[in-house]
Design brief:
By secondary structure, the protein is mostly helical. It has helices at residues 12-25, 27-36, 48-56, 62-75, 81-84, 89-95, 99-113, 119-122, 127-135, 142-152, 164-174, 182-188, 196-208. The longest helix has 15 residues, at 99-113.
Amino acid sequence: MTQTPELESLTEENLTRGLLVLANLDSDLARILEILGTPPIWSREPGFATLLCIILEQQVSLAAAKAVFSRLCGVLVTLTPENFLTLDDVQLRGIGFSRQKILYCRGLAQAIATHQLDLTKLERMDEITIRTELKRLKGIGDWTVDIYLLMALQRPDVFPKGDLAIAIAFQKLKNLATRPTPVQLEAMTQHWRPWRAIAARLLWHYYLSNPNSP
């Protein structure tokens, strides 16, 4: 069965195709590609562990989130919802979880353990359904869903308009006086459809090449 374009996963082949389309659409993106080369695909394994890690990354540095996640994996050799639920607040705070992150991650684990949420079935669904289902859970908003769709499910047209690094990169790339808001970013990137997830990777690629950006 052939997948619809929305459900098509990003591959090396369509990454190359999407990059060519974007380079023809936008000379600034073409310049990133010419100077920095092809961006990484940045893929993650779908499932509980990845979604929990993305929750940890909310509003903190990736390094800080990675440190907490690594400590968690040191305590739980197999990171499953059921195993996570065996840890109490004291243990999770000792690992580095904030009070809010404990609440959010435990809610996610409980939803999966009690079969209210099936991440495997969700993989085959359309973006609107996935977004609706995940956002039912406390602590999961659009940014978290966007990153999961983009990196774990490899959807080609997801654009994390609320991502700070992308906003900074876009401002610098387009030489804007002010940093664009998520609403402005959404409006200004419509012409990149249906390859906005590739454009996001280009912007991250550009951001990471400019570590001293504001």
